Amino acid sequence: MYYPWWYVPGLTAPMLIAFVAVVHVFVSHYAVGGGILIALENRFAVKTNDKPYRDYWYKHAKFFVLLTVAFGAITGVGIWWTIALASPLATETLIRTFVFGWAIEWVFFVIEIVSAFIMYYFWFQLKPKTHVIISVIYAISAWISLVLITGITAFMLDSRGLFANWSDTGNFWHAFFNVQFLPQTFARTGGAVLLAALYVFVHAAWVLGDDGKLLERVVRRMTFPIIFGVITMFIGILASFILLPESVHRAMERAVLINVLVVIFVGTCVIMLLLMFFGPVLRPRSISAGFAVSLLIFGLIALATAEFVREAARKPWIVDQIVLGSQVYKDEIEELRMTGFLRDSEWQKVSSNKIERGGMIFMYHCNNCHALERGMSAIKPLLSGENDKKFLKNKIRLLNKPIISMPPWTGTEEEIDDLAEFLLTINKKTEI
Fold it and tell me: Residue 284 and residue 217: Cα distance in Å, rounded?
């Protein structure tokens, strides 16, 4: 809370992060899965001396590099920009805790970018076997980047260690001896392969529409990665949620939206498997651009809903058991209840006006999940015209009871009164 807050009207900052992150996942997972498929299919084409098939993968590599390197770089920077503004304390914590992990990831990221450009621009200049080695180097480096980042995001979701609870300290190894690491790595690897094969379907249907034999060969080769990807992603995500703490399960069961998203995820996975069986498996020549796009849309929906559910499962934490949604460390709660939540900082001085202080408390303590009058979980409709200050103060005092997905109150009794006054002014405002 010693950083300035970032207020995003209506949408709220976490939802903006979710949007940017999901768009980036659509590209970053393709970067990993596409690298794996290009390496495997390039090797297959060289081994079987299938020049037309290898020529197609050169065309796909151009599409792959443009989308993953150019657009992927923009969305990747966008994630860092949004999380640094919306959750600066959590971002600082992750950088400090996993600085060695980030350093390793950046090394493999550089290898990934360099090998991607060599792979594409020297496709025909290098000897085929040498080129296959370059594509394998890209695939391995991209997958290791996924593994490293998955370890860190797994720790954010669930800080429990496989052998002990390390949440009080946190270090590089906690990301990789974590209950969520293996299932999430499994899920993300499957999702990456699935998404890449779906992109290949769309690209091949668009580029090879007049070459039925080559299109059929591509479709047949991509059928297994899609089925493998759906099943692997589903099993990984299922295992991840089974291993979540009991408190998280209870919170998710009470959230209607989360239940709807879970049903959508399961439904889209089933639909994709059925479409694959009655389409490419039985009739590989029947693939069309429309069918390929439909499959891709279902794949994107499955991945997006899984990401949203994973993010929602983390509440009230930004980093599980370490940083709360109220932008404070767990260890600071008792101290701040005695000394006060608001403190002067270089960003601004604490106002002497009661309602202005309440507004500051809201921005720090509540803005991470709640809009003001309209938007995501807007506070005004949630108050439902409640004008009883005593009732509001008691609700603030017991903030995380019975709603365990909300952070505990972290301030003095005087600050409870300040926040209640501010909420009353919001509630009394006339709708335009």
Answer: 8
CA distance 14 to 26: 18
Domain 330-428 has CATH 1.10.760.10: yes
Distances (CA, A) of 235 to 186, 232, 241, 403: 8, 5, 10, 30
**Cα→Cα distances 43→36, 134, 216, Å:** 11, 11, 19
Whole-number Å distance between alpha carbons of 214 and 222? 12
Quick count: other Cβ atoms within 10 Å of Cβ 351?
14
Burial class (CB in 10 A: 0-12, 13-18, 19+), 169: exposed
Tokens of 107: 């090394």
Q: What is the C-alpha to C-alpha distance for residues 70 and 41, in angstroms, rounded to an integer?
A: 23
Q: Which residues of the chain have pLDDT under 50?
A: 430-432
User: Could you tell me the residue ranges of all domains in the chain?
Assistant: 13-317, 330-428
Report the residue count for the chain: 432
> What's the rounded Cα separation, in Å, for the pair 171 and 177?
11
Closest listed residue to residue 394, CA positions, set 372, 369, 419: 419
- The predicted pLDDT at position 134 comes to 97
Give the per-residue pLDDT at 210.
Answer: 73
Q: Where do we find the tokens 């960003």?
A: 347
Reference 310, options 153, 105, 182, 202; nearest CA is 153
* Residue 170: predicted pLDDT: 59
**Tell me, what's the pLDDT at 112?**
94
Token pair belonging to 224: 């297994």
Which class would CATH give 13-317? mainly alpha
DSSP β-ladder status, 323-324 and 317-319: antiparallel
Structure tokens at 149: 């980042």
Which pLDDT value is given to residue 166? Answer: 53
Give the residue among 294, 278, 240, 295 at the shortest CA–CA distance from 262: 240
What is the per-residue DSSP string for 287-342? --HHHHHHHHHHHHHHHHHHHHHHHHTTTTEEETTTEETTSSBGGGHHHHHHH-S-
At 161 the three-state DSSP class reads strand
In which residue are the tokens 């106002």 written?
A: 351
